[in-house]
């Protein structure tokens, strides 16, 4: 029942190894030390929960807790109902959860503003604004109790209580040496392609730039295009994807069905410099995990109107001095620990991974709300407001 809307006939194998999925043994020398898994991009909430179960700062006394983690698998739950016309079914599990949580004694400490949960789906899937079957998603995040909570998701919405954290990749190290070895490998990797695009066209999406990107890639002798249309190439095979990315200097990351895509983090994992076309793909999303100075690790080619877009991607990338390219790649390689999720059955000592940074960011957010309460300020002000300009082409991204 979890497979509606995915290309997987059976999700059960991906629950193996604490949500990391089946271990990949055919890595063709790409990965070593049993660090590679066939991780499903929708299983972040399972991975996060298993990491949280091993978190060093858990307490059995909720009155002492700085934050309350709610281990509700929101994304897996809603995936059963997203395509149903019955709105009551779409919303029922979320309503049940919130009614139960709001009766718990710890809820009254901050009326839920110290509570957070994680979704392996994008936050927009929980932001249905109208009770009309033609509108997508559940209304979970608009239910009053939920509005008092924060959600970590692979893509945030434009509301202030949704936060973006990285999609899971297939690399899950269990010790620091695995990270050092991988960084050393990709630093010295030969990259015969100037740029690459891995994805499928989106002809049904008006304004999508993917068609133009694919045309330019196919016309270039220095671009590698991996067609992810159904049945064409095995884009769900992490070995195929990483091999292409580690052979490329730049990886193109246009928006897909939504602003973000897992490919962003696969490319960083491979030491491939991401090229973005919209601020909502990364810059206004992963603020705890990616540098504020976007030019340090990425290239930005803004596409405000695809009909007026006349940029030649190859010429733009060829125009970047070699020294700048080298510096960006070094920054991407340094970023690697920030965007991976370590094996839940172990612990990294030298690095903070994506889980650590997410928990730290959430604790800081909750502490600011708590401080506002101590100062007599209304903690609801701004907490669940919408930022209408969050994903627009403002001067900050020009």
Q: Please, could you describe this protein's structure?
A:
The protein has 398 residues and is α/β, with parallel strands linked by helices. The protein has helices at residues 44-53, 74-78, 87-101, 107-110, 144-147, 176-187, 210-219, 238-245, 263-269, 313-318, 322-339, 354-374, and strands at residues 68-69, 115-119, 150-153, 162-164, 193-199, 223-227, 248-253, 273-276, 299-300. The strands form two sheets. The protein has a five-stranded parallel sheet with strand order 6-5-7-8-9, with helices on both faces. The protein has a four-stranded parallel sheet with strand order 1-2-3-4. β7 (248-253), α9 (263-269) and β8 form a beta-alpha-beta unit. α6 packs antiparallel against α11 (322-339).
Bin the helical content.
25-40%
Sheet with the most strands: spatial strand order: 6-5-7-8-9
Give the overall silhouette: globular
Major sheet details: 5 strands, parallel
Secondary-structure element string = HEHHHEHEEHEHEHEHEEHHH
Question: Regarding quaternary structure, how should these chains be classified?
Answer: single chain
Instruction: Round the Cα radius of gyration to an integer and report it.
Output: 21 Å
Q: Percent of residues in beta strands? A: 5-15%
Overall pLDDT metric: 92
What is the count of β-strands?
Answer: 9
Distance between the termini: 44 Å
**Helix-strand makeup class:** alpha/beta
Low-confidence regions: none
Number of helices: 12
């Amino acid at each position: 029942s979890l497979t509606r809307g995915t290309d997987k006939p059976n999700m059960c194998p991906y629950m193996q190894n604490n949500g990391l999925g089946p271990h990949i043994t055919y890595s063709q020398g790409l990965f070593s030390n049993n660090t590679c898994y066939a991780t499903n991009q929708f299983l972040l909430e399972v991975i996060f929960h298993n990491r949280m179960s091993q978190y060093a700062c858990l307490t059995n006394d909720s009155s002492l807790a700085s934050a309350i983690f709610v281990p509700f698998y929101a994304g897996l739950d809603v995936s059963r109902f997203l395509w149903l016309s019955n709105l009551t079914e779409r919303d029922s599990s979320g309503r049940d959860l919130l009614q139960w949580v709001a009766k718990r004694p710890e809820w009254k400490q901050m009326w839920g503003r110290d509570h957070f949960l994680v979704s392996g789906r994008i936050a927009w899937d929980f932001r249905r604004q109208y009770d009309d079957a033609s509108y997508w998603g559940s209304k979970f995040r608009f239910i009053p109790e939920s509005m008092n909570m924060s959600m970590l998701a692979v893509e945030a919405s434009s509301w202030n209580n949704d936060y973006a954290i990285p999609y899971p990749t297939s690399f899950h190290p269990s010790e620091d040496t695995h990270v050092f070895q991988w960084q050393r490998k990709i630093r010295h990797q030969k990259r015969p392609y100037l740029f690459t695009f891995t994805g499928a066209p989106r002809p049904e999406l008006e304004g999508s730039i993917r068609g133009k990107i694919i045309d330019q890639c196919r016309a270039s002798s220095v671009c590698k295009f991996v067609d992810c249309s159904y049945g064409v190439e095995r884009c769900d095979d992490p070995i195929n994807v990483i091999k292409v990315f580690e052979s490329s200097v730049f990886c193109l990351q246009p928006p897909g069905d939504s602003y973000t895509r897992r490919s962003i983090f696969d490319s960083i994992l491979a030491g491939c410099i991401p090229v973005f076309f919209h601020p909502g793909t990364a810059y206004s999303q992963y603020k705890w995990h990616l540098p504020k100075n976007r030019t340090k690790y990425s290239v930005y080619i803004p596409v405000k109107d695809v009909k007026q877009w006349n940029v030649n991607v190859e010429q733009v990338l060829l125009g970047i001095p070699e020294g700048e390219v080298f510096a960006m790649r070094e920054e991407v390689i340094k970023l690697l620990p920030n965007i991976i999720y370590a094996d839940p059955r172990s612990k990294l000592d030298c690095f903070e991974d994506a889980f650590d940074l997410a928990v730290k960011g959430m604790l800081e957010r909750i502490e600011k709300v708590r401080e506002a309460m101590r100062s007599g300020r209304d903690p609801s002000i701004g907490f669940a407001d919408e930022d209408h300009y969050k994903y627009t082409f403002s001067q900050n991204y020009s």
